[in-house]
């Protein structure tokens, strides 16, 4: 192998080992306090997961319409506090016989119709408005958690495909160095032409793998852009991107549970309101009439007070009550299902973190052995003691071991992120 290949390869291995050591230190329990200081340089070149989340949330319809929904809730509460369920109505009419016998008969009527609250309707409307206002924030929080789940998945997929792309590029460089060394030795008569073909084939295979990895990386980056509207230029180091491992004290009510918990009183109060609205609202009408029977007569003045009371609602009222009751039952049942699901997912997420930590340790041992074995067979191949197929196989195994070691750090970080998601914790 040329001198440049013999000096470059150890340097690359040294850098990779240093990176893995830094990642291991950051993921250890004593390194959590140092992580923010080490992550600062990366944050200058690429947004963090938290930054991307805030950017993504600002683009969501729920965030853009939030202020208008607050305004609607306040308007609904003011409507429940009003004196009447609907605004009063003004009525006016004018009667004349000018187009018929034209005897001078005239009548002018002016009135006001005021809708009246049904018994208990006003209080029920106010209670429903309060419940819906309280449920608005929990609904927004649940939407934020759903967005966080999608962004977390895209984020760790991006970092994972980045590792694959870097590994593929490194494997391609290694294959090209081996092919160049084989070509030199073939020209010198130390190796056969078949070895040259095999080395060139390894380069072609590495080129295809690199192209595939770059495509996957590009797709993952577009997923980030689609969610956040931002295209990061530089991928952060895994230790800088890793979220803090949750503590037991951090476990709070999950926004998904809070959403259904707030939906249930809304449904219950909707049932109460529907029951009070068993008929249309009564109406109080006050009118005054000024009229005369013929020309020359004096105008008379009368005042009329009338009440309009509709009959019962019948099937329409029954339908509204049944629909509101169904919503209440659905909210209660969904709350129980989500509570059981989150309990199960929390246990599974914690177990995934423990398993990922063990897998990381095993992958690092395998990578260290692979690097050492690569060094042995690299020297042996130069001395002519190892054939090319064995050299290529050892190189591929070492590269794959390094890739798995790097991915194991990402898988642990992704498992921690998924655990936080189950606990209802936003990206940090």
Major sheet: order of its strands? 1-2-3-4
**What is the number of helices?**
11
Derived structural class: alpha+beta
User: What count of structural domains?
Assistant: 1
Overall pLDDT: 83
The proportion of strand residues reads 5-15%
Distance between the termini: 48 Å
CATH topology-level name:
Outer membrane efflux proteins (OEP)
The largest sheet, given as strand count, sense and whether it forms a barrel, is: 4 strands, antiparallel
Radius of gyration: 38 Å
Q: What is the H level of CATH, i.e. the homologous superfamily?
A: Outer membrane efflux proteins (OEP)
- Element pattern in H and E: HHHHHEEHHHHEEHH
Shape type:
elongated
Residue ranges: pLDDT <50 for 5 or more in a row?
Answer: 1-45
CATH secondary-structure class: Mainly Alpha
CATH architecture: Up-down Bundle
Helix content: 55-70%
User: Would you count the extended β strands for me?
Assistant: 4
């Amino acid at each position: 192998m040329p001198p440049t290949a013999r000096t470059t390869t150890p340097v690359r291995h040294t850098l990779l080992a240093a990176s893995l050591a830094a990642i291991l230190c950051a993921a250890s329990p004593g390194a959590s306090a140092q992580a923010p200081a080490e992550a600062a340089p990366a944050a200058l070149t690429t947004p963090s997961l938290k930054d991307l989340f805030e950017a993504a949330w600002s683009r969501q319809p729920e965030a853009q319409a939030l202020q208008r929904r607050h305004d609607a809730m306040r308007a609904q509460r003011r409507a429940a506090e009003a004196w009447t369920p609907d605004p009063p109505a003004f009525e006016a009419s004018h009667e004349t016989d000018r187009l018929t016998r034209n005897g001078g008969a005239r009548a002018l009527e002016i009135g006001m119709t005021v809708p009246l609250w049904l018994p208990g309707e006003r209080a029920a409307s106010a209670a429903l408005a309060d419940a819906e206002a309280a449920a608005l924030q929990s609904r927004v929080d649940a939407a934020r958690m759903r967005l966080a789940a999608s962004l977390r998945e895209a984020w760790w997929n991006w970092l994972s495909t980045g590792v694959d792309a870097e590994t593929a590029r490194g494997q391609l460089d290694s294959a090209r160095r081996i092919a160049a060394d084989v070509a030199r030795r073939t020209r010198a008569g130390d190796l056969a032409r078949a070895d040259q073909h095999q080395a060139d084939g390894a380069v072609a295979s590495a080129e295809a793998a690199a192209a595939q990895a770059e495509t996957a990386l590009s797709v993952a980056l577009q997923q980030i852009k689609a969610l956040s509207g931002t295209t990061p230029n530089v991928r952060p180091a895994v230790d800088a991107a890793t979220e803090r491992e949750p503590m037991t004290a951090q476990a709070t009510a999950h926004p998904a549970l809070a959403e259904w918990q707030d939906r249930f009183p809304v449904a219950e109060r909707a049932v109460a309101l529907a029951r009070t609205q068993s008929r249309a609202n009564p109406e109080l009408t006050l009118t005054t009439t000024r009229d005369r029977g013929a020309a020359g007569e004096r105008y008379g003045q009368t005042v009329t007070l009338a009440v309009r009371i509709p009959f019962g609602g019948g099937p329409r009222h029954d339908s509204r009550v049944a629909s509101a009751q169904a919503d209440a039952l659905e909210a209660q049942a969904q709350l129980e299902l989500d509570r059981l699901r989150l309990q199960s997912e929390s246990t599974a997420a914690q177990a995934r973190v423990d398993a990922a930590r063990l897998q990381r340790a095993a992958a690092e041992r395998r990578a260290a052995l692979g690097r050492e074995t690569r060094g042995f067979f690299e020297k042996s191949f130069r001395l002519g003691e190892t054939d090319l197929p064995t050299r290529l196989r050892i190189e591929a195994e070492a590269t794959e071991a390094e890739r798995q070691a790097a991915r194991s750090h990402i898988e642990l970080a992704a498992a921690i992120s998924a655990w936080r998601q189950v606990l209802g914790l936003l990206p940090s």
